[in-house]
Amino acid sequence: MVSVADIVGLLVVVGVNTAVAALATRFLRVQLTTRWGTAIYIVALVPAVQLLVTLGLTGPLGLGPDLGSSLTVVSVAVALPFALGVAFDYFWMPSPAEVELPERLERS
Protein backbone atom coordinates (compact mmCIF):
# COMPACT_ATOMS: atom_id res chain seq x y z
CA MET A 1 0.00 0.00 0.00
CA VAL A 2 1.36 3.39 -1.00
CA SER A 3 1.07 6.11 1.62
CA VAL A 4 0.07 9.71 1.06
CA ALA A 5 3.62 10.82 1.93
CA ASP A 6 5.00 8.59 -0.84
CA ILE A 7 2.58 10.07 -3.38
CA VAL A 8 3.43 13.61 -2.32
CA GLY A 9 7.15 12.75 -2.51
CA LEU A 10 6.72 11.37 -6.01
CA LEU A 11 4.82 14.50 -7.07
CA VAL A 12 7.65 16.64 -5.68
CA VAL A 13 10.22 14.65 -7.66
CA VAL A 14 8.15 14.92 -10.85
CA GLY A 15 7.51 18.64 -10.27
CA VAL A 16 11.16 19.47 -9.61
CA ASN A 17 12.30 17.47 -12.64
CA THR A 18 9.69 19.17 -14.83
CA ALA A 19 10.95 22.57 -13.69
CA VAL A 20 14.57 21.50 -14.29
CA ALA A 21 13.69 20.35 -17.82
CA ALA A 22 11.79 23.55 -18.65
CA LEU A 23 14.47 25.86 -17.27
CA ALA A 24 17.37 23.95 -18.80
CA THR A 25 15.61 23.85 -22.16
CA ARG A 26 14.98 27.60 -22.03
CA PHE A 27 18.59 28.27 -21.03
CA LEU A 28 19.96 26.17 -23.88
CA ARG A 29 17.57 27.71 -26.41
CA VAL A 30 18.63 31.22 -25.38
CA GLN A 31 22.37 30.52 -25.25
CA LEU A 32 22.83 28.39 -28.36
CA THR A 33 22.24 29.76 -31.85
CA THR A 34 21.86 26.55 -33.88
CA ARG A 35 18.77 24.38 -33.86
CA TRP A 36 20.62 21.08 -34.08
CA GLY A 37 23.06 22.03 -31.34
CA THR A 38 20.21 23.00 -29.07
CA ALA A 39 18.31 19.79 -29.77
CA ILE A 40 21.37 17.60 -29.20
CA TYR A 41 22.28 19.33 -25.95
CA ILE A 42 18.68 19.16 -24.71
CA VAL A 43 18.43 15.43 -25.43
CA ALA A 44 21.87 14.68 -23.98
CA LEU A 45 22.23 16.99 -20.99
CA VAL A 46 18.76 17.56 -19.57
CA PRO A 47 17.94 13.89 -18.81
CA ALA A 48 21.38 13.47 -17.21
CA VAL A 49 20.72 16.43 -14.92
CA GLN A 50 17.25 15.09 -14.16
CA LEU A 51 18.69 11.70 -13.28
CA LEU A 52 21.11 13.34 -10.84
CA VAL A 53 18.27 15.37 -9.29
CA THR A 54 16.17 12.21 -9.00
CA LEU A 55 19.01 10.36 -7.30
CA GLY A 56 19.49 13.26 -4.90
CA LEU A 57 15.81 13.60 -4.03
CA THR A 58 15.00 9.92 -3.72
CA GLY A 59 18.28 8.78 -2.14
CA PRO A 60 19.37 11.00 0.74
CA LEU A 61 16.00 12.77 1.11
CA GLY A 62 13.98 9.58 0.68
CA LEU A 63 11.15 11.14 -1.32
CA GLY A 64 8.76 8.94 -3.27
CA PRO A 65 7.70 5.31 -3.09
CA ASP A 66 9.55 2.22 -4.23
CA LEU A 67 8.47 1.99 -7.86
CA GLY A 68 9.79 -1.52 -8.29
CA SER A 69 12.16 -1.32 -11.23
CA SER A 70 14.67 1.11 -12.61
CA LEU A 71 12.74 1.33 -15.89
CA THR A 72 9.67 2.55 -14.00
CA VAL A 73 11.75 5.13 -12.11
CA VAL A 74 13.31 6.44 -15.31
CA SER A 75 9.91 6.53 -17.02
CA VAL A 76 8.04 8.30 -14.21
CA ALA A 77 10.76 10.49 -12.70
CA VAL A 78 12.82 11.38 -15.78
CA ALA A 79 11.04 10.73 -19.11
CA LEU A 80 7.61 12.10 -18.16
CA PRO A 81 8.99 15.33 -16.61
CA PHE A 82 11.40 15.71 -19.53
CA ALA A 83 8.53 15.58 -22.01
CA LEU A 84 6.42 17.96 -19.91
CA GLY A 85 9.25 20.46 -19.39
CA VAL A 86 10.38 20.54 -23.01
CA ALA A 87 6.77 20.81 -24.22
CA PHE A 88 6.16 23.65 -21.77
CA ASP A 89 9.14 25.59 -23.09
CA TYR A 90 8.47 24.97 -26.77
CA PHE A 91 4.69 25.38 -26.79
CA TRP A 92 3.94 27.76 -23.92
CA MET A 93 6.90 30.14 -23.85
CA PRO A 94 7.68 32.46 -26.79
CA SER A 95 10.66 31.71 -28.97
CA PRO A 96 13.87 33.42 -27.77
CA ALA A 97 14.01 35.33 -31.08
CA GLU A 98 10.53 36.79 -30.47
CA VAL A 99 11.37 38.27 -27.06
CA GLU A 100 12.22 41.96 -27.22
CA LEU A 101 14.95 43.13 -24.87
CA PRO A 102 15.30 46.67 -23.58
CA GLU A 103 17.85 48.77 -25.49
CA ARG A 104 20.20 48.81 -22.52
CA LEU A 105 20.55 45.02 -22.64
CA GLU A 106 20.80 44.75 -26.42
CA ARG A 107 23.97 46.88 -26.61
CA SER A 108 26.04 44.80 -24.20
Automatic annotation (TrEMBL):
Chain segments annotated as transmembrane: 6-28, 40-59, 71-92
InterPro entries, alphabetized: DUF7991
Coiled-coil stretches noted in the UniProt entry, renumbered to this chain: none
Domain (DUF7991) ranges: 1-104
Keywords: Membrane, Transmembrane, Transmembrane helix
Protein name: DUF7991 domain-containing protein
Organism, scientific name: Halococcus thailandensis JCM 13552
Lineage: Archaea, Methanobacteriati, Methanobacteriota, Stenosarchaea group, Halobacteria
